[in-house]
Every structure is written in C-alpha cells, then in structure tokens.
Amino acid sequence: MTPNGLYCPAGNFHIDPNGKVDTAVVTHAHSDHARRGSREYHCTTPGLGVLKARIGQNISVNHHAYGEAFYIRGVKLSFHSAGHILGSAQVRIEFGGEVWVASGDYKREPDGTCAPFEPVPCDVFITEATFGTPGFVWGKDIDLGKQIHDWHLENQAAGKNSVVLAYSLGKAQRVLNLLHPWAKEPIFCDAATSVINDCYRDEKVILPETIQVTRQTSPVQSRLFVVPPSFLRGEFAPVLGDDFETAFASGWSKRPRWGNSHPGFILSDHADWNDLLKTVLETGAKRVYVQHRGSGALVRRLNSLGIKAYSDSALFPKNPQQLSLL
User: Fold this and answer.
1) CA distance 124 to 170
2) What is the dihedral sign for C-alpha 205, 211, 215, 216?
3) pTM of the model
4) Residue 131: strand, helix, or coil
5) Do the beta carbons of residue 193 and residue 226 sit within 8 Å?
6) Most buried of the four, 106, 195, 216, 313, by CB within 10 Å?
C-alpha cells in the first residue's frame, strides 16, 4: 500500500491507483478505481468501452479477456470476473512462487449485466469489505424488477412520476435490466447514464428502451426515471414537475429510513457479510488483507476462524508479516 494505492514493486505497476502512474491495472471503471492521467492502462476486454467512456477515448490501454495471462516485467497477471459491474475484475498476480489476488469490488448475486463472480484460489487475498459488518445481509430471492415496477404503477395511478436514484455506471444498468420484462414504455435517463447504457448495449447486455433527458424534453407525468441523485439538483430536474416520488437503489437502503421517505430498494453491487466470508474461505488464502469500511469486523471474524487477517494498513514493505506465508 502506497500513497498512490496498491503497488507491485516486482512489476512496477499499481492496481486502481489514486493518481497518475506509469502503469495502471484497473479492476473496473468506477471513478474511485479508474482515474485519468496514467501513461498506460490494463483492463478487461468487456470493460474497455466503459473505461474509455469514463476517463478518455484516447488513453493508451491494453485489454485482456477473462482468464487470459499477460506479463508486466516478468510478473504474470490475469483478470477474473468480480461480478460487480460490466467488465469488473479481480486481479490475479503470480510471482516468485506465490499467488496474490486483489479483489477490487465484487458481488456474488446473479446479474444480467455482467459476468458472474469467479472464485480464484490464492495464497494471499486482498478483499473489499464495503458492507463488511453482520448487519448487511441481502435477500437473494427477491424480484426487485417487479418491486420497482409495482411501486411505479402505484405512483402512476396517482399521477406521479417515479424516480429511481441509481448511480450512472453499473447500478442504473442493473435496474434497467431488471425492469426489462416489465417495461411497457421507454424509461427516462440522464445524459451520463445514457452514454453508459450504449456501452452496455454494445456488449449485448439487454436493456429496455430509454429516452435521454435533454433541454428540449418537456415535463412529463406518470413516467419512470432512472437517474443518479445529482439529477434532482441539476438543470434538467424541472422535467419531473412538482409531483414525483423518489427511491434509492442501494445496499445502504438496508439502513433504517427516516420519516415518511420511501425505504428504497436494497440492491447492492457489493458482497454482503455472508458472501464476504464465503469468498474468503473459497480462495483458500493463507493470509487476507481487508479494505474499506468493514475492515475491523471482518478482520476479527476471520481471525476467529483461524485465518491470518489484517487491515490493508498492514500492507507496507517493512511489515515482516508480508515477507513469508508461513
């Protein structure tokens, strides 16, 4: 772990660097993982379109199929599906007789917009833990497409627009894919989401018909919108009129709601507590480093299971625990 993020000295590359570096190995195109300014990028082939859409069409980028081995300064790498968004990957790194895997963000639920998660055996596993506390457990057999559709029908009957708040890359396309069997008319999206919708369609992901909101779009009534939260504060918000209902599609909807607000739809693109534990065990890793908010709880649980687990703050060169797998 360096000021620029995860770094592999043997290969002189960074994984999802925080700033400009020579070689960036990118797990996926979300802005906290893919940033502008690096000299060279590596990503998955399915994720190439969304990466260019987010950080620039003219970047120098090498793309690789899932499971395809490639080398950077003698270090063997391969990408393996993380099931997070289109093109998302775990990074498998093999060098000096050891295999490390950096998970990036991942989830285990079926998702029609991206390849399913692939467990990757390794000696050392660096895992995310965005929802790494026992209170975050998702229901796996809920038809969220129908839930959202039924909510929209209730609003439609009352003459109200329905606004599903979903981030423009990944979450919005997952919501749209879930709504595809139910959509009877086009769904309105903002410009940023529409660009990413096109990237997903280019990769043969099934989405319903959508309409991009522009300055020329007149206010509508009783229609369905899938837009990011910033849309409500933007210049195109007047298209919603004065009578609309909002609901956030997020794993954070698991938290208690306040007042009369809609509880939202629990739809996360990250592994829940049970799937984090399941994944770590499936890797067979001898040592685990945990990233993100839930690092403390997950580290404690893994240690209780006899697995050597640490926060990613322990990932620094002078830490002797890194020098041996024994």
Assistant:
1) 28
2) positive
3) 0.94
4) coil
5) yes
6) 106
